Amino acid sequence: MASAPAWANQSLSVVYPPNEHQTTSDRIFLIGTAPPDGEVFINGQAIARSRAGHFAPSFPLQVGDNVFTLRYQNQQLQIKVTRLSTTPKIPVGLAFAEDSLTPAVDIARLPGELVCFGAIAPPNATVAVQLANQKVPLLPQPQVLQLPPNSAALTQQNQPTVSDTGKYQGCTTLPALGTDAAIANSIQPQFQLTVDGKTTTQLSPGKISILSPAQLEVAEVVADAGVARTGPGTDYSRLTPLPKGTRASITAKEGEWLRLDYGGWINAKETSIIPGVVPPRSLIRSVSARQVAGATEIVFPLQVPVPVSVQQGDRALTLTLYNTTAQTDVIRLDDDPLISRLDWQQTAPEQVQYTFNLKSAQQWGYRLRYDGTSLILTLRHPPVSQAKQNALPLAGIKILLDPGHGGAELGAKGPTGYPEKEINLAISKLVRDQLVARGATVYMTREEDIELSLGDRVAMIDKLEPAIALSLHYNALPDGGDAMNTQGFGAFWYHPQAHNLAVFLHNYVVNKLRRPSYGVYWNNLALTRPTSAPSILLELGFMINPTEFEWIVDPQAQRNLAAAIAEGITEWFREVQ
């Protein structure tokens, strides 16, 4: 069991931000503590503190260096925070801004696709790009909307801002190879800048290649689950992972990213090029289902492993096969514990959609894999409860708990420096004991202070296939948040099969303990992404909130929280089964 760290004799300290901290935020909070008697001053201003002496005030930041002097009685600390500007520096004179020319990496596109160019240059300049015998003018963009990072939704500051960037942009399309003798397969654009009658040129850092639609390369996914995205980079949203063996034509390139013919982008490191093959296309005829232990497997015999996507809905799961044409006359599907009916339709040329109508609103996990060229979709059955025979409400239910962080991964720090990894493990053990007392079989990703990768944690979920998986954490905020006034219990989900569990547990704990609500979030987190079981992440409270931290480290409050989580899980299983 965790106990409250001893702070009665602790001197003035700041655990965040560290000295010489750099940020792009316009505000910063200072997290720390001092003995509760007396006052703490920051830059001569007395600040509010919790009963135990903790503090977390926020201050505005000017671009450049900001110095904060903290004083408690005869102690003094100084913290320097540097705010970095996010506005590109507009050059003066006959020059482009450093690293402003785009495309910044080599790209490849199909003939007729739009290719856009950008540069940052002085105002009232004339900017163009020369492509062989084609000249593309770049026009000044008077204002550019800057989107905040995704984390801004966590601080309730999710609003775009307008900035004057000195940006010049223009687009064109490129002809097919052979239709213009001056266009080569690979082109290095030349940027031209004219200011006050003087002109300079600069080569683009990225070259442009034109692909031949009749000679597209074919990529095969070599990762166990290829990460498909909506665009060429990790900032773009994830799509359904592509099972190992998936093949598709490459229709565009951008740096190390490949666009596959069905629309998703994948990092080239997760693929290999298959020489001498035609664009992967498949027919599909009969589909069959079979019962395996705790699940139904649906087999889709194909001629080649094609890209796929999955979408879960209320009482339905929809599987889409791309680059596929149906010749289907027969599907066998006997009465099934999970599936009430299977419908299919050819929704577009070379795109077939299968909709599994389910007997229950709650889905319990699925897997996708290729066995040779046959796609296997595994749909898990509801867990078999033994409550009636055992008198314990969670008898027969397998649950996985993941105490976040561990080892060198400290997680967030409370005002005293108390690391999140310790309270995560402590509360997870208390929840485990409560669940075991109710009959559940509980697995822990870690039971001691060890470092465990996100991949290892996810692999345990996939291997053990629990009825549900919960990752337990305590919260913090990105720079710019209001640490003093943000607190509460939050729940995070990713797949629709986990949504009901996240909402139910959030509401149950908030109402049972009369705790503040931080909210329920769809969030792209490693521990919410497993498809093999409903998986959620709970943020039980804010380490950086001075008052809530006192509740977090209170032993009785920890026991009450663990009991409420276990009771909420028990009630949820009663509702969905």
Textual characterization of the structure:
The protein has 577 residues and is mainly beta. 13% of the residues lie in helices and 39% in strands. Strands 11, 18, 21, 22, 25, 26, 27 and 28 form an eight-stranded mixed β-sheet that branches. The chain has a six-stranded antiparallel β-sheet with strand order 12-17-14-13-19-20, with no helix packed on it. The protein has a six-stranded mixed β-sheet with strand order 41-40-42-45-43-44, with helices on both faces. The radius of gyration is 28 Å and the shape is flat. The N terminus is likely disordered.
Unreliable stretches, pLDDT < 50, 5 or more residues?
1-9
Question: What is the arithmetic mean of pLDDT?
Answer: 93
Q: So how many helices?
A: 6
Q: What is the radius of gyration? A: 28 Å
